[in-house]
Design a protein that fits this description.
The structure is a single chain. The chain is an alpha/beta fold. The chain contains 14 helices and 9 strands. The protein has 2 domains: 221 residues, no CATH class; 185 residues, Rossmann fold. Strands 6-5-4-7-8-9 form a 6-stranded mixed beta sheet, sandwiched between helices. Helix 6 crosses helix 7. It is elongated and about 85 Å long. The protein binds zinc ion. Zinc ion binds next to helix 4 and helix 6.
Length: 423
Amino acid sequence: MDHHKLAAAKLWLVSPAPSATSDGPRDLPYLSHALYALIPVVDDKVKKLTCDEWWRIYINEAWFEAATVPEIGAELAHVTWHLLADHTDRARDQDVDRSTASAWGTAADVTVSHTLTPDRLKPPPLPTAAALHLPDGRAAEEYFALLSRLPAPALDGETDSGEAALGPNDGCGSGADGLHRSNEHGPDTDVGAVSKQEATEIRRKVAIEYEGYARGRGNVSGDAMRWVNRTLKPEVPWEPLLAAAVRRAVGWAAGCGDYTYTKPSRRSSSLPGVVLPGQHRPVPRVSIIVDTSRSVDDNLLARALGEVDGALLALGVAGAQMTVYAVDAAVHTAQKVRRARDAKLVGAGGTDMRLGFRGVEAERPRPDVVICFTDGDTPWPSSPPPGAAVIVAILGRRGFTLPPSPKWATRVECWVDDQWARA
Ligand SMILES: [Zn+2]
């Protein structure tokens, strides 16, 4: 294969354009990290060019010799975006199989063509949302949901056997849908492979450069920007983090209390085989401060309280009474409840969580664990309530910078997603 021609196609993609001619270079320097990681494999079983999940590109030599440098460049950009967008793992997350591969492939191609169109790079056969009567600017998963409701067209060479591997010309290769093709190499061959870890690193580098590039332009695609955000700020679900913080705080509090399981309590006789703590304090005491100012999202607050209830229940703390303070610019209520989400939450004024903390400090006996739910737009006390492990759950919207919280508290950021914050 003519490697000079392949190099020329990569250079055509990344080089600055001296003038805006229709087949001049495309000035996409951010793609270089990805383009130079591609591993070319000559394979005359594919029609043009496909990719596998190890960043190998399978190239039909006859097509390659006949194609122009811009045509090769456009196909390279096409498969590179499949790899950058991690369509392999995203297809696996959607349980894409042989029967749905075609719908997923189309969905992924629509997003790729959306990304390539502003740079005049879309290879002509790639479908667009408009041509398929689909809404514009959605994620591959959303297109897949829409397309997989339609009857699936038969794949090349599909027979009644559902088990056979997909062929070399079924879609764009495993790099686009995670399904192995009969012509593709496995992970361990001497052809070379880009590992998952290396791929993650390449995506990060490209995303950082793409972000800078996109800032200077108006015509970037929404899907590409979503990809940048996902790549640079991987979404860690907050629910397990909040539950883990509660478990740690309760565990810490239990460790501080002088619980002894060696001295049987007087109650243990009624529960044969169960050793109860020999102390008066059966479980750590929990107090909860809830910011009821108007700026707090009620649904998110309910989810966060539910998460805390779940964690406490799992630790056997629920059932014990906890105190819930409803606070905005004043302490409205201090209620004893069995579950945090049972508390009636009133208030809609300004925000001063210091008042809630003052209430907690006045409690006797003192609480061991204090959890404060707030949007964070509040003054804080200068020190934590004595003897308490404090968790601050900051409630906000994804994509926004949330206000700081005191160093003496464990911070957990809980967000709601909304359509416009994600875009
Ligand atoms: Zn494709």
